Amino acid sequence: MDSQVGRRERKKAATRSHIAEVALRLFAEHGYDEVGLRDVAREADVAVTTVFAHFSSKEALVFDEDETHEEQLVGAVVNRSADQSLLDALRAQALHSAQWFRTPKSTTFWALVESSAALRGYAAHMRARHEQALVAAIAADPQAPASAIACRALARFALDVHSLARDAQDPTAAVEESFDLIEHGFASAIGRGGR
């Protein structure tokens, strides 16, 4: 029975991934606003209802990694090793993301987002949700700054590093430089001992 469930979940994940890849290709080739969900379904060889079974909106087709990205951000805080500080965990997660920013796929993706007001708006709402989740994780952490404002500021700065790295010629160097600045600014608010 477990193997059946596993196979079904793998098939669903593969279908979701296929639809998202087809959608991104069509959006990049023809423009986001010029491509409808029926076009995506036809090109992906699935029913429109299948598209909606996997994605809540047209924008969600573009940001299909939304939940995964939020899980990685929060996981960097809550799943870090006992000897890693809060800031080091956030830095490591940003460095991991910076690797993707070096790829042509990232450049194409962000050019698509910038080309559409709907996608820019969705990205802003997504970022706000990620910030709330990250603030909650930071505030619950033993190394959390004492003030709620400092927890919010740290989450916001950590997310800003992603944007800075995305636009930088050297994303890794941008992450390192940004976190060096953040670390100095939060030195009095956050312990370096790690727990």
From TrEMBL:
It comes from the Bacteria. Residues 13-73 form the HTH tetR-type domain. PANTHER family: HTH-TYPE TRANSCRIPTIONAL REGULATOR BETI (PTHR30055:SF234), HTH-TYPE TRANSCRIPTIONAL REGULATOR RUTR (PTHR30055). PROSITE patterns: HTH_TETR_2 (PS50977). The keyword DNA-binding applies. One of its GO terms (molecular function) is DNA-binding transcription factor activity. Keywords: DNA-binding, Transcription, Transcription regulation. Residues 36-55 bind DNA. The keyword Ribosomal protein does not apply. InterPro entries: Homeodomain-like_sf (IPR009057), HTH-type_TetR-like_transc_reg (IPR050109), HTH_TetR (IPR001647). This is Transcriptional regulator, TetR family. SUPFAM superfamilies: Homeodomain-like. Signal peptide: none annotated. It comes from Actinokineospora spheciospongiae. Pfam families: TetR_N.
